[in-house]
Request: fold
Amino acid sequence: MSRKIDVVKNVLEANDEMALNNRVLLEQCGCLALNITSAPGSGKTTLLEKTIVDLNPMRSGVIVGDLQTARDAERVAHIAAAVVQINTEGGCHLSASQVAAALEKLDIRNANLDFIFIENVGNMVCPSDFDLGEHYRVAMLSTPEGDDKVAKYNTMFQPADVILLNKIDLSVMLHFDVSCVRDDLSKINTRAPLIELSAQTGEGMQQWLDWLQNAKANLGSGK
Ligand code: MG
Reply:
């Protein structure tokens, strides 16, 4: 095995070990963690704003990963009980060790949170390989990105536990064909439900909230 491959393997193994520690800690705290992945601009932060208001805001925490700036963290800071910003300084994904540090900062053992939402760096490729210790992986696509993206970026959609199709209110205007997404998903991921929604208008949000509450109720009995 070449040294380069060896190094990559070690990085991933170390990340997986840290992710496992995160998951055990979160379970001990009764806190459900979600790792939200998507392209930039698909609406992760808007989704979180609307979701947290509809859940109990005082029992939701957010970890926001961004290349630069604290803009997203500032948007959710007034809604969530606790927010931690991670600037990756150019890094294209979050790692389990960054999330471990964020959980420490949130004082997760005493924070009394039901949900931790991890907004990953907007990128459809790099975050896929990195388990953060989440219980569920959320992959989001939005209609302006085009209906061909599931097949093109299959590594993001394949490991997802739930798939959100955001900005569904624009689908007619953008000639977005949902059946194309369903067809591509049927080839790579048949276990994750596809939820069509619009974080902006509220359409479909109840289905997403029900999914979250159900996942929270099953915490500890599944993954
Ligand atoms: Mg964002």
The mean pLDDT is 94. The pocket of magnesium ion is lined by residues 44-45, 72, 119 (CB under 6 Å). Strands lie at 32-38, 60-66, 82-87, 115-119, 136-142, 162-166, 194-196.
